[in-house]
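Suppose you are handed only these lines of text.
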Amino acid sequence: MATLKFLCFLILQLFLVANCEGVEVGFYNETCPNVEIILKETTKHYISIAPTLAAPLLRMHFHDCFVRGCDGSVLLNSTKGNKTEKDEIPNQSLRGFQVIDATKSALEKECPGIVSCSDILALTARDAVSMINGPTWPVPLGRRDGIVLILLEASKNLPTPFDNFTTLKTTFGALGLNVKDLVVLSALLTNTQTKDYVLSQLYLHGSTFFKDFGESMVKMRQIGVLTGKAGEIRKHRAFRN
Ligand code: HEM
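From them, the structure of the protein bound to protoporphyrin IX containing FE can be written out as follows.
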């Protein structure tokens, strides 16, 4: 009896670990099995032409996660009378929306209404960075797209270059990220030339940076995800359904 109870406990724990984020590896296995292949092909097409797009795509994912969680809200275009976070100052220099658009339309052809824009952004950031020989990290799927937009949230929630370390610690801490996450994730915040140099040096010297970066990305991509019946699966990257 005790053994049976222990087994039940163990199974329950495994179940909780597998579902603790509400997202899972293989989420689209039945509904859109080629999602990762299609996304990789499209991303590769763009990154092979313009490798410098990898950095802004990673930044886009970070800006998405820090405002209402990783819900794809950064992707929404402003409409008449409704300004979205995409047009707020910290987001005005974001680039790479065409990559998300291309993947979204390829996936809508393959399996309409199934794959969320927030999942597409999380996967694209990961694949683009790994395509330029950067770190990689697992991305379980099943995020849904946000429908709540509050003007000026990006300006309020995203860190600015004028924030001191204490403010940055508070901003990251409020989202469940610690000082190590802050340091590691911000390490790519240099100009492109230095970034390439830093990445190659880290690679050559077997630093634990790639591992640390991947671990912090795993924490970041979990922030405030919408699952189940929350939010929606957007038909178009730029507009709510
Ligand atoms: C710690 C607080 C942070 C601040 C204050 C900050 C601020 C900035 C600023 C001002 C830029 C230049 C934008 C421009 O070209 O106009 C930038 C670029 C960038 N940021 Fe951050 N950032 C922070 C954290 C992060 C994190 C956590 C990530 C990734 C997970 C990240 C990824 C990047 C990347 C990849 C670029 C280069 C983008 C490009 O080349 O277009 N940043 N950041």
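What can we learn from it? Residues 1-20 have pLDDT under 50 and may be disordered. The radius of gyration is 19 Å.
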